[in-house]
């Protein structure tokens, strides 16, 4: 699989594919026309920590066709390279930043939505039908994911033969599924979108965009989901620093 130009994120020792929405739309259009299997992932501090601590996760990211700049700290560190053309914030592409532009993807006719509960999944399917009029959009809920449900999802995808798959099982489950199943899945563009399915459906409230541009979206998520987010906000950055320090010491 060919990849777009990768750039290293200073300090974090990982690579990403800095793109703005029009450039991602162009890449997706090429992938849809090509018809082969592609992956689109995103980097935030959580994914960086997993990349540095898990071999399978790292391999998936290294082989991915696109790794978007998702989290604000990752974006800001990349911005220090001076490689941005225009405002650095234009390169921050969380899933909900580019999903509304799917109507601009050339040749996109079949979309599959995998993940979230039945209500949220159906809501996201309905929303995508308004974003991409005329497209065949189908959904497979992913609540209480287990090996049996995973097998059923793989079979369902083979029946649907989508061109674009939005995989929203949360990190790291969605990435683990791609590690296990990518070779057995039908050709398509597989996009790990986290909680975007619930956000598209309106089940989960999006942070105001001005908060995201200030890098304070974590505060919004912490307010809404304190138990789920607290460790990532207050604990995981220390784990990341420990991992980075260990890598530097081993090199010396």
From TrEMBL:
NCBIfam families: wecG_tagA_cpsF (TIGR00696)
GO molecular function: hexosyltransferase activity
One Pfam family hit: Glyco_tran_WecG
Keywords, sorted A to Z: Glycosyltransferase, Transferase
Record lineage: Bacteria, Bacillati, Actinomycetota, Actinomycetes, Micrococcales
Domain of life according to the entry: Bacteria
Protein name per Swiss-Prot or TrEMBL: WecB/TagA/CpsF family glycosyltransferase
């Amino acid at each position: 699989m060919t990849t777009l130009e990768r750039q290293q994120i200073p300090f974090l020792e990982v690579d990403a594919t800095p793109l703005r929405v029009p450039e991602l739309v162009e890449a997706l259009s090429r992938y849809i026309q090509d018809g082969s299997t592609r992956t689109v992932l995103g980097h935030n501090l959580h994914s960086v920590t997993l990349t540095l601590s898990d071999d399978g996760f790292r391999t998936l990211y290294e082989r991915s066709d696109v790794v978007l700049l998702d989290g604000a700290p990752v974006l800001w560190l990349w911005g220090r390279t001076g490689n941005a053309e225009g405002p650095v914030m234009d390169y921050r592409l969380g899933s909900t930043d580019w999903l509304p532009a799917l109507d601009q993807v050339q040749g996109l006719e079949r979309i599959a939505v995998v993940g979230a509960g039945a209500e949220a999944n159906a809501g996201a399917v309905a929303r995508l039908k308004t974003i991409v009029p005329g497209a065949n959009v189908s959904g497979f809920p992913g609540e209480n994911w287990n090996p049996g449900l995973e097998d059923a999802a793989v079979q369902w995808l083979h029946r649907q033969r989508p061109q674009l798959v939005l995989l929203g099982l949360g990190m790291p489950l969605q990435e683990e599924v791609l590690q296990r199943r990518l070779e057995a899945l039908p050709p398509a563009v597989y996009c790990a979108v986290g909680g975007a399915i619930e956000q598209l459906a309106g089940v989960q409230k999006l942070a105001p965009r001005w908060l995201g541009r200030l890098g304070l979206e974590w505060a919004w998520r912490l307010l809404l989901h304190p138990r789920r987010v607290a460790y990532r906000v207050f604990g995981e950055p220390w784990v990341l620093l420990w991992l980075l320090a260990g890598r530097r010491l081993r090199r010396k």
